[in-house]
Amino acid sequence: MGGHKEQDVARQGFDAADAVPLLLDPRGAVTGWTGQAERLLGYPPSEAVGKDFAGLLAAEDAERVPGLIGRCGADGGWAGLMTARHRDGRTLRVMTRITAATGQGGEGSLLVLLSEMNGAPGWDMSRAVLEQMVTGASIGIAIVDTDLRFVWSNAALEQFGGGPPAQRLGLRLSDVQPGMDFESVEARMRQVLESGERVVGYEHVGRVRSAPLRESAHMLSFTRLDDEEGRPIGVYYTVVDVTDRHRARQRLALLDLAGKRIGRTLDIMSTAQELADVAVPGLAEFVVVDLLETVLRGAELPPGPIAGTGRVPLRRAGHRSLYKDLPRTVVRAGEAVAYLADSPPIRCLSTGRSWHQEQLDPLATGWVVGPPGEPEPTFLELGLRSVMIVPIRARGVTLGLTGFFRRRLDEPFNADDLHLAEDLVSRAAVCLDNARRYARERNAALVLQSSLLPLHLPEQDAVEVSACYRPADELTGLGGDWYDLIPLSGARVALIVGEAHGHGIDAAAAMGGLRTAVRTLAALDLPPEEVLAHLDDLVDRSAGDEGAGPEGTYGHPVGSGCVYVVYDPVDGQCTMAAAGHPSPAVIAPDGSVTFVDLPEGPALGVGGPPFESVELTLPEGSTLALHTDGLLLPSDRNGAVDTDRIRLRQALETSGPTLELSCRAVVDALVPTRPYDDVALLMARTKRLDRGHVAAWDLPADPAVVAEARRTATGQLSRWGLDELAFTTELVVSELVTNAIRYASGPVRLRLIHERTLVCEVLDGGATAPHLRHPRATDEGGRGLLLVSQLAQRWGTRFIPDGKIIWAEQSLTAPLE
Fold first, then answer.
1. Residue 452: pLDDT above 90?
2. pLDDT digit string, tens, across residues 364-409
3. Pairing state of beta strands 585-587 and 493-500?
4. Distance (Å, whole) CA 381 – CA 387
5. Which helix (H) or strand (E) holds 216?
């Protein structure tokens, strides 16, 4: 109750015109000291400024100061009685009012009014003294009545327009500032009049009479004035120009937006368009981004600005306009653009320095070379008034230029705008250069990978085959997925799908090494599990030679996966093995889909248990679907394998009219246009050779049977209509059967296969591979395999559980003479 009574006493007759003013900072230190304050308390300015206000008071009141300062921010001010200490040691009873104020730069401060008590509340200082203080203040101050009409204002308010104080009397804000949003300001004043709550830090952005050609910002504070009976008599408000701070905040917001929106992809055209989108309307009304042709191709560029000042081939990579009719003619995105040789854009490219002009000559022609025979439009016709040209440079390389344009005459570009444009372009330039470098590496990787992937799968009669490959998107980079089909002996084929570890050129190179190694091993006619075992050894030795860690690194195939399938169209036998790779799916002739229960061996080069193979017999018309894990895993890579197999099964069950269309439909159904990972799918529909195209005979291990074998083979060729191959076939059969009887053990079996080639196979129980020798002229033997190698298109040996098979192929289209 004592505190309320004290404040009531202080309010009685407390007239600000008779008070001694002090200014404090938010911490309570004195920042402003007047002669009246020196006369009242005896301290000269040198001793008072910087001193805590609490140090000027008696001990009991000094303890109250921190709490009273805090209340000023919450309650809008405090008034009451205090005991001050004079410099000579005596005490003075003073009425005190503390209110919050706003400085020139928008910083907070406290205004303290002191009035000495001489027996009764009152003031001994004239109103003119206080008016001298507020008249010289840099903050605009005004008082309006309950009708919001000016009754008093200081001279500083004149800097914001509206005339001197005498001309404002009796007018409202709408009368003195017709260009500003006076309705929102007056609405705040009415709110203060009705509620009595003080409004501090209200920011108004608009145009005032003092600066009608540019947007400005002001910080306003409103306080209700009451009479002795507590009735509102008007509003006291202050105005501070915070345009510089507002513009700085706008620039930071624009640069922050640029950091969030520019460079979201690694696509050059998209990044250029993002630069234009961010700059409109925050900085300009029309923006164009023109890049060098070589940048769009991802080519390497020479460092420094563009040499020479002649015409430089550019391409419009992005543009944005605030108005549909600005400019009236424009080069579309993706089209070529050529500037005049002596134009400012070309000079910016050649020097690497920015340029701007606040006011373009409206009758001057534009800088872009138009179609032949058409007159060059003027800047007035183009709708362009003010311009900035900023070259796009990153890492010492010039990539192109950005043009910023405005059409409004009242707000041309200035030096601050140019600095902002340079900051904006420099951020976008790094993103554009990253996109260019990525495009260069991606294009090189695509070329490398496309050169390593088979352009056309070999023709053969074992399977009908189709493949689909889809590279990864821009954010992850090209991977090392691959596929292949390799014709084997005996009309068989090997089907391979694999995935090299990593992304980019390194992954493509690793993929090429794996594919070459698999082709080399396939030529040895080894079982699938042995092919993978040898491939695993090669990868492990390669990693050890080059110092790759056990986890593998980019450029090494360590950790890569592969599935190797061998299909025999004679009996439909299919053998397969996998190394860190998903097992194939099988689409039965009736359309049902199953997944092969294939043990997934360890990835290549990482070590682990031996590889295992499975064998199964496929009915004719079955379809094998070999794929990389990019087809099985969704783009978010969080799906369960069972769920993904359900999706894959559903896609495989929906067959197209052709195998090629089915293959593409599966990829389209499961994989986005730009997938997270590379995807390779190889689909092979099995065939069976006509039984009439295969002939086999069991022969006893007797040298006398060789002649019978020749006659039997010749008769079969005659039935097939291949009499022109009878002579060479007799020689091949004779040599192979003779070698089997002479050097091997067990039964001998002769088989002829009529496919795209004529295949002659001789099976024996031996486990030793024959060797081709080059006998001397005096040797009596050793010419059998040398003769076979000369007569056959190709020949070789493959091992089976019962022994080995020596085979030789002859071409049906170009028989040997």
1. no
2. 888 888 777 777 888 888 889 999 999 999 988 899 999 999 987 6
3. unpaired
4. 15
5. strand 211-226
What number is the average pLDDT over the span 569-583? 94
Q: Amino acid identity, residue 561? A: G
| Residue-level pLDDT at 8 | 45
- Here the tokens at position 631 are 């087809």
Distance (Å, whole) CA 189 – CA 155: 21
The residue behind tokens 């291990």 is 701
Nearest to 358 by CA among 387, 382, 379, 381: 387
pLDDT value at residue 111: 82
pLDDT digits (tens, 9 = 90+) for 111-126: 888 887 765 444 444 5
Determine the Cα–Cα distance for residues 599 and 547; give it in Å rounded to an integer: 30
570: left (phi over 0), alpha (psi -120 to 50) or beta: alpha
- C-alpha separations of 343 from 219, 346, 365, 535 in Å: 44, 6, 11, 62
Q: Are 159 and 47 in contact (CB under 8 A)?
A: no
Q: How far apart (Å, rounded) are the C-alpha atoms in residues 687 and 495?
A: 14
The Cα–Cα gap between 40 and 37 comes to 5
Say what the pLDDT of residue 815 is: 47
Angle between helices 641-653 and 659-670 in degrees, nearest 10: 140
Q: Say if strands 91-102 and 199-208 run parallel, antiparallel, or are unpaired.
A: unpaired
CA distances from 207 to 33, 251, 410, 420, 649 (A): 35, 19, 11, 22, 67
Say how far apart CA 260 and CA 431 lie, in whole Å. 12
pTM equals: 0.57
Q: Tell me 600's DSSP state.
A: E
CA dihedral 550, 551, 552, 558 (to 10 degrees): 80
Q: Under DSSP, is residue 203 helix (H, G, I), strand (E, B) or coil?
A: strand
Whether residue 788 contacts residue 735, with contact meaning beta carbons closer than 8 Å, is answered with: yes
Give the residues across from 601 on adjacent strands: 579
Three-state SS string over 103-156 comes to CCCCCEEEEEEEEECECECCCCCCHHHHHHHHHHCCCEEEEECCCCCEEEECHH
Overall residue count recorded for the chain in this entry: 817
Question: Confidence class of residue 261 from pLDDT cuts 50, 70 and 90?
Answer: very high
CA–CA separation, 140 and 102 (whole Å) = 10
Element of type H or E holding 249: helix 243-261
- The 8-class DSSP code of residue 304 comes to B
Element (H, E) at 466: strand 463-470
Residue 297 DSSP symbol? T
Q: Where are the beta strands (DSSP E) in 395-474?
A: 397-406, 463-470
Q: What is the DSSP letter of 364?
A: S
Distances (CA, A) of 310 to 346, 347, 356, 448, 540: 8, 9, 21, 36, 56
Q: Could you give the CA distance from residue 326 to residue 384 in angstroms, rounded to a whole number?
A: 8
Helix H or strand E encompassing 559: none
Q: Kindly tell me the burial class for residue 491, based on how many C-beta atoms sit within 10 Å of its own C-beta (0-12, 13-18, 19 or more).
A: buried
Cβ-based neighbours of 1, under 8 Å, separated by 6 or more: none
Question: Does position 589 have pLDDT exceeding 80, yes or no?
Answer: yes
Task: Please answer whether residues 143 and 236 qualify as being in contact, where contact means their C-beta atoms are separated by less than 8 angstroms.
Answer: yes
**8 Å CB contact between 549 and 593:** no
- Cα end-to-end span (Å), the chain: 128
The answer to whether 528 touches 613, Cβ cutoff 8 Å, is yes
Q: Which of 487, 468, 539, 556 is nearest to 759 (CA)?
A: 487
Average pLDDT estimate for 577-583: 93
CB atoms within 10 A of CB 481: 29
CA distance 542 to 235: 85
Whether residue 397 contacts residue 301, with contact meaning beta carbons closer than 8 Å, is answered with yes
Q: Say how far residue 371 (Cα) sits from the centre of its chain.
A: 37
Q: How far apart are CA 74 and CA 145, in angstroms?
A: 25
- Report the pLDDT value the prediction gives residue 214, as an integer from 0 to 100: 62
Count other C-beta atoms under 10 Å from residue 509's C-beta. Answer: 21
